[in-house]
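Annex B. Sample input.
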Amino acid sequence: MKQQGFFAELKRRNVYKVAVAYELVSWLLIQIATQVFPFFEVPNWAVRLIVLAIVVGFPIALMIAWAFELTPKGLKRTADVDPAIDSRAKPHAWIYVAIVAALLSFSLFFLGRFTASTKQNSANEVLAKSIAVLPFENLSEEKSNTYFAEGIQDEILMRLSKIADLKVISRTSTQRYKSAPENLPEIARQLGVAHILEGSVQKQGDAVHVTVQLIKAADDSHLWADSFDRKLTDIFSVESEVAKAIADQLQVHLTGREKQVIAAKSTDNPEAYDAYLRGLAYTLKTQNTPDNYLGAQKYFREAVRLDPKFALAWALLSYVDARGYHTTNLQPTVALREEARQAFETALAIDLNLGEAWVAKGYYHYGCVNDFETAVRCYEQARKFLPNSSRIPQSLAFVARDQGQWERSESYFHEAERLDPRNVSLLTRHAQFYIALRRFPEALRKLDQILEILPNDIDALVEKAAIAQAEGDLPRAATLLTQVHPTAGDPTAWETLVYQAILERRPDQIISRLKEILARPDPDVGYLNGELRFWLGWAQDVAGDHIAAQETWREASAELEAFLKEQPENWSLLDDLALIATGLGNKAAALTLVERAIALHPIETDAANSPQSIDILARIAARLEEPDRAIAALKKILSIPCNGGLATGMPLTPALLQLDPMFDSLRNDPRFQKLIEGKP
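Annex B, continued. Sample output.
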């Protein structure tokens, strides 16, 4: 066909008209997607899907226009249509369609601009009603009273955070700042607020002096200030008066229930309140260690012993118990799980409208009994009472993650960070979320945020080193780990250090350090001492000292078996015992133990963590020279987002398969070589 004739044929077959009409309609659809969808909170993936469908559909539309003709008798193949008839004047309906599409597009364009402007105005209005409460200065002669100043600050913040019309930044985002910093405008910008509350507390005996000042951050002007002298028994009145004064100054609307919450008195017992404040101080520490959980648990138990009607202390005791059970920072016994349940039930029996009690109940159902539906209902109920709490969307993120709803989980993490932008613990969990997805650049950005807030944070450095290991960059991992000096009560950091030495195949130095730690084990970490003993045996085995490794593993097995009697549902403990049985050559016991662990948390109900036990199964099968079973397990976990079975929970990667000596028996298997190359 000649070139001129070809273009004439395109025109005759209406290919040009279809292309123009398609572009106009596409423009219309994209306008609807980008301007209207956000108004109804339709997720971004729907917009991306529409754009992708439009791009794919364009060549298909042109092919259909070339091959078919729309006639008064319906759609017919172009080859079957008489050209003479086809050449007659045709209606110009497509022109009207184009005009209508253009008008709709312009309408949507201006609608989008209008709604964006409205949203911006609304955002500015919300920003005007926003506040961050900076750490209160401890002016007491006894510096040990720091916990008391922190508690007063947190109690004021807690009352403010229950006001729906006020944006309140969590204490976890503000605790890194000084009590009276000089650069208030910059701090307000970092936290996204318009106002700052500063204060100081002086406690002497049962007398308390509290000074507070409300500052407009933009020009550093003082809007309101006051001082209060009270007895310890009347400290709640100060917290209530301050919260009420701030609400008045910022012209915040208070509902009747919010007025009651602000004025509420949690306990009449000053000793119980003191114990509660001491427990609260432990929950606000950044490191996720057994020491901090045990400290919080101890003082909350004391608070409810002194005042059995102290609902808030019951709620926080339940939350600490349930979270400690789930994370194994407390020994996950049946007794601990029962205490968590009884504590939130007691809190709700005292005060059914206590948001913290609903959060505790939600975490119990999530972390202790894997009842995700009930957990979500509890968290949504808690939202009604805690509109500014970042813990609720963070908790919902955990549930969505474990259900395999990764995109929804990410959305909840973003929501939590908007409420609590400098919360180190929250940023760490978000980084670990990206690690499970193997989205390492995003995880590193979160970890770098943490290190900007808290330089030399051990948890962040350990996670960054683990990412370097997963990417096969052992020199970078080693450089990061030179900055890590963990205590005996931080087994995750120690395991990461040992794993580095094992991956480098140079474990001699770490063996001596581990022996020193295990010679004086920290009793607070419970079964994790036995887990660390497994790592010592593995290091000895890699070093070629097989007799010492066998002896170490026998000690570890005896130690962990004792814990298993009290923690029969601890699948992490079962994984440890399975690895040890493998090292001792007990194939039947190893497979039985790991299969029991997998059954306790099947992937259908625990998408993020169940693959940890499948990771252990792959390692056991490789060590026991069952290549088919090992390869099948490896293919499974490499194909899905998940947490890994060792140390920080880093998921396996092709680089780790290349380096990890547990997989040495598979090196010559072509299927394993394909996995190392990143091929399924």
